[in-house]
Design a protein that fits this description.
This protein is an alpha/beta fold. It contains five helices and seven strands; from the N terminus they run αββαββααββαβ.
Length: 202
């Protein structure tokens, strides 16, 4: 009987020791899992912040009253910091209001500096400066319109603008899509003409 009890006690001790030995490994596994999940959340947050910054930059670019090249939004969660410069207080306030209008923005820290146009005379008096800004804005607007249309959003279309004339290059699947892309570009306010160089793939 004593021998049997001793055997049972020994067996229980071995099982208990094995269970205790597995605890650190399990804890380590849970720690690694938690760390991986944390890293995944951080990457997701960074991607969302970058997406929001791009959305804000595009929104500023499409507003004719703002020079998008001087406004740099930084996003952290729902908070936005506006860095850069504008020509007057009206543009400064406008940039802030536009930022607040973007979905997902909860707070705006407006750090834009006001630099009057006369302080930036060298750049503004450069031949064609205003035209280049306008052309860049039109190019962005045409691209967004093409992306917004379900029949042209997946097409590889290059858009260039010079003096209000938009040139389309690339490949499309049919004549109808070629014509549609040109019509979309022509309907953008400010576009004077469209040169359609799109090629229909055979």
């Amino acid at each position: 009987m004593k021998s049997t009890n001793f055997l049972k006690a020994t067996t229980c001790s071995i099982i208990l020791a094995g269970s205790l030995a597995s605890v650190p490994a399990l804890a380590g596994s849970n720690h690694d899992k938690a760390q991986t999940e944390t890293q995944g959340e951080e990457l997701k947050a960074d991607a969302h912040n970058a997406w929001m910054e791009g959305k804000l930059e595009t929104t500023f670019m499409l507003n004719r009253h703002l020079n998008n090249f001087t406004i740099d939004p930084e996003v952290e969660g729902g908070n936005v910091i506006l860095l850069g410069s504008v020509e007057n207080e009206v543009d400064r306030d406008l940039a802030e209001e536009i930022a607040y209008s973007v979905d997902g923005v909860e707070d705006v820290d407006n750090r834009l500096e006001v630099i009057p146009a006369e302080d930036d005379a060298d750049a503004s008096e450069e031949p064609g400066f205003a035209d280049r800004v306008e052309d860049a804005t039109l190019t962005a607007e045409v691209k967004l319109k093409l992306l917004a249309n379900s029949n042209t959003d997946g097409l590889d279309i290059n858009v260039d603008t010079e003096d209000g004339v938009v040139t389309l290059n690339g490949d499309v699947e049919s004549d109808s899509r070629r014509d549609l892309a040109a019509q979309i570009a022509a309907n953008v306010e400010g576009v004077k003409d469209v040169v359609n160089k799109l090629q229909v793939q055979s």
